[in-house]
Amino acid sequence: MAKSSTVRHEHTPRERSGSIGSVKGPSREAVSPDLDRLIHERIRLGIVSALAVNRSLTFNELKALLKTTDGNLSVHARRLEEANYILCEKSFDGRLPKTEYRLTAAGRKALERYLNHMEALIRATREG
What is the pTM of this model? Predict the structure, then answer.
């Protein structure tokens, strides 16, 4: 069997460039063409958004809120944790394990940048 010559490159969100060009609004502020793909994914955006309006949420609360599976939530939460967007604290409530998530300052800042970017795209679309 022949080996594949495909090379996989890992990119951080800042290294990626989307097909969306720079957008200039009426206030002439430039919006980066880079969309934070880490947050842009539906489940991750849900996690970060839910944590932005709650001090903390447990794994089961997030799972119910986002209507997702254990495996799906844990994979997406791990990616956000690796990016330092959320903190994960594991403890026990009696004999039951409890996983609690909180949004970090970096996560809040990333969400704010993401929302500003999306608002600028919406404005540009409506004006264009």
Answer: 0.73
